[in-house]
Amino acid sequence: MATNASVPESIDASEPIAAPTVRQAQRGTLVDFLESLLVTILLVLFATTFVVQAFKIPSQSMEPTLLVGDHLLVNKFIFEGDGAWYDKLLPYRPVRRGDIIVFRFPYDDHLHYVKRVVGLPGERIRIIDRQLYINDSLVAEPYVYHDPSVYDPLSDNFPPPPGHFIAMGLRPEWASQIRNYLRDGEVQVPPDHYFVMGDNRESSLDSRYWGFVDRRAIIGRPILIYWSVRASADDYADRSLLGSFRGIAGTLLHLPSETRWNRMLRGVH
Q: Most buried by CB count within 10 Å: which residue of 105, 192, 201, 258?
């Protein structure tokens, strides 16, 4: 005897499945776009915070290695960290003599400076007749440029005689501190600090004039000139928002003719 079993309803293939409305499709596209934009922003923020950052050269202090108008990519993921357990797992290395570094200036509004490391923690520094001595040994500096048309007494001999610090142009804060680091006519670099100078020795305000660079102030090492434009220090003198806009507008206006194409994508050493 047959029983009345329930039979599941089947889908009639002849009936089309309702397609999403135009509004639903647009909403899905917008959500996808916003998600992609958010991920992109997060990746850019992560990269500029921890990996790489762009800077430009506004002065002549590092010529001829770096010229005014050079735009750099700075590797922020190179120098050893603050001693955390994961530092040993990352490709860090210590700061070395000869490294070009970007760092926060210790005074004023903490501008970003670019100089070359010449003295490491614990080392004794002295300049005699434009020659650099570290721990009484002469240091070869093939990257240094001396401008015969510019006179800079601290480029000839450093440190200056006691009692002449202010007269030589030392920053007052440094003039009051340098005595603490003098050892038999030399300056000794304290722990976790570095002595830096510009390659263009007669046109560089550096550690001779304002003191040491704290390890915590170092941002990274320039690795690449990604773009270079003919410019002068006066072009970057106005640091206001309006001045920045003027500089950008002027650069874009003369982009093809003012670009130094031979410096594009050049490594920094």
A: 201
